[in-house]
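Chapter summary example.
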Amino acid sequence: MSGAAEARRAPRVRVPAVAIAALVLLVLGVLSLAPAVSTYLAQQRAISDAQAQVAGQEADLKSLDAQRARWADPAYVRAQAGSRLFYVTPGTTAYRVIHATAGTEPAPTTAARADATPWTDALLQSLVAAGTTTEPSR
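The structure predicted for these 138 residues follows.
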């Protein structure tokens, strides 16, 4: 009967000690490498940020070089002096228009002002509405 009881028992799984030791070493290796990987990824982010900053500065440098080249052209300098400082070359008559938009704006109508509520009445209505409302503020 003891032979039949042993035969019915499920076979026992044995894990070799070498497999357990390999698993422990693998976990320790991952834990020891995690800070190094984190540092590596942070350095890669910093490098990519620095590269983007350098690329932006190079684009700014190109635009400044182009602007410097424009200012080296005497015709551009004369045009800028004329538009910014109102300089003109000798023999040229300059005209300056003052209040150029004054004639193009329509005059205010009195009908629009007659419908408007005086500001004091509007202020009083606003204060009364704010004091008597039952809605919670947002």
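To summarize the output: The chain has a mean pLDDT of 84.
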